[in-house]
Design a protein that fits this description.
Elements lengths: L1 E3 L1 H10 L3 E7 L5 H12 L3 E4 L1 H7 L8 E5 L7 H5 L8 E6 L4 H13 L4 E5 L8 H6 L8 E5 L2 H10 L3 E11 L9 E6 L7 H6 L2 E4 L11 H18 L1
Parallel strand pairs: 2-3, 5-6, 5-9, 6-7, 8-9, 8-10
Antiparallel strand pairs: 1-4, 2-4
Helix pairs in contact: 1-2, 5-9
Length: about 240
């Protein structure tokens, strides 16, 4: 798998994942120089090439002068995420029909920054963790556990049986600011067109909403998740 972009490649090196090689623009300076130093420190092979060669290698067109070649992204099991919960409880994010790589990358970035134990995506009708998602996540995908499951509904059942309260994020629920988000919590975020699917919503313990005061009646999925995730953080810090 290719990882492109300066921040994403630097975070990939820091994560300790196995890297086959890094190809970098000749005459590396600034942050490229730092990437070179970190790669040498980690024992990663570095090759140099001109920008035209990097353009030909690039899958995204946003390589910023550096491309890393690493093993394919390794998904974990849902049980691994559940086992990662800390003293204040577990925090899991489930993606229901998030097909846009920009949204998935941003959601993974939010998950890492908010201290979530992991992200769950379904095997069908969902974006996967690709080089574009890793770049958009600013390298956060190198740190966050991501489970790809055959059935999101089965994952909801598994979490509930493991002591989690599972909430769908939708426009017609009760205010998220009135909910107790301490303990073991899982949030389900749906695709921007379809939202959380009916059966998945019915399996959840409740539906939570963000107050909207403007004329536009919805938020981008990753933005909504970001606000909700930090309400979980706030509740835990206040406890």
């Amino acid at each position: 798998m290719k990882t492109e972009g300066r921040n994403a490649v630097l975070e990939l090196i820091k994560s300790g994942r196995q890297i086959e090689k890094i190809v970098m623009e000749k005459g590396a300076q600034g942050s490229l120089g730092r990437i070179f130093a970190e790669a040498r420190k980690a024992g990663v092979r570095v090759q140099f090439a001109d920008m035209k060669a990097l353009d030909r290698m690039s899958a995204t067109g946003h390589h910023q002068g550096v491309i890393a070649f690493a093993a394919e992204f390794e998904y974990c099991d849902l049980e691994d995420i559940i086992a990662s919960k800390g003293e204040k409880g577990g925090f899991v994010i489930l993606c229901d029909g998030i097909e846009d790589v920009h949204n998935l990358g941003s959601i993974i970035r939010v998950a890492e920054c908010a201290g979530a134990d992991g992200v769950v995506i379904p095997a069908q009708k969902s974006a996967s963790v690709t080089e574009a998602v890793i770049r958009i996540s600013a390298g956060a995908a190198n740190y966050v556990k991501v489970a790809k499951v055959p059935s999101l509904n089965a994952a909801v059942d598994k979490l509930k049986n493991s002591g989690y309260w599972v909430y769908a994020l939708e426009a017609d629920g009760k205010s998220i600011y009135s909910a107790d988000l301490t303990g073991n919590v899982a949030l389900v975020i749906g695709g921007e067109d379809s939202g959380v699917k009916r059966l998945t919503r019915e399996k959840c313990d409740g539906v939570l909403s963000l107050p909207l005061s403007g004329k536009v009646n919805s938020l981008n999925a990753s933005v909504a998740l970001g606000i909700a995730a930090y309400e979980v953080v706030r509740c835990r810090q206040a406890k």
